[in-house]
Fold:
Amino acid sequence: MKTILVTGGAGFIGANFVLQQRQVSDIRIINLDKLTYAGNLVTLKSLESDPLHVFVRGDIGDRALIQDLFVRYRPNAILNFAAETHVDRSIDGPDAFIQTNVVGTFHLLEETREYWRKLAEDAKASFRFLHVSTDEVFGSLGPNDPAFSETTPYTPNSPYSASKASSDHLVRAYFHTYGLPTLITNCSNNYGPYQFPEKLIPLMILNAIEGKPLPIYGDGQNIRDWLFVEDHCRAIALVLSQGIPGETYNVGGGAERTNLWLVQQLCAILDELRPDSAQVPHHQLISYVTDRPGHDRRYAIDFSKLERELGWSPLEDIESGLRKTVQWYLDRSDWCQEVTSQNYERQRLGLKS
Structure:
């Protein structure tokens, strides 16, 4: 039986990957997650009795725990989603980002290297360590600059992106120095089901439903390349199975849009799906707030390498993906309430209600 150790598998992208894989494959998944604010077991409820999904609460920086998981489950691959990811939080408190994204990744690499070194030759050859990263490591683009490619120099501009750039460099170094068969993916902005409500798209949807302001940074003209999370998960599975060790693959949605366009589109979809709402037209809730420090102006991903070499391209365009996402949040108010409730927060921290 093939076994994958997935770290950060209760977070947004990690949980979507786990759920997708349990539908399409018979791989056993050992799911290690620290259960910080954005990681939760509510998303994984459907897998509670699944014998091929084993959840372990813990930190990638806990080397004794990682050693124990290697001994008990003998994974054929490591898929590292574990990371602190929110730029605003990294500005307010960068320490957690350095500890998890840099130090934690280092500890995970060290334990993986020791485990991999002792494998039989055929197992060593087929083993993979896939590190999931972001396009934010490349910095900011001008309006006419070409999209980020795999050879774009790193110029991170926030504590978050700097910590992810550091972890990418570590992963690359472990391939070139030790021969550990690593892979790196750098993705554009993800959206879709199960995203924690502090991120832009779910925040705008839920605020609009409740008649709260829809705050947009600066002039709203910051551009992002939007990628539907299920498309991203398909790309990760493909890179894990067919990617060449030592290589990096960019994953993008081919959907550059301004933040203002995005929020206006969400409002238009809500107007259509909730025509009787007192908030119609929802765009009247849009407000502009002071821009955040170091706010990158534009991101864009060139994913032609992934398309050319592995045959991947996104199935969802931005319009269909946003419609699916809005409908999901309208249908899953129970999930939103549960992951943001005080009771959930107390349960996550192991406190009595």
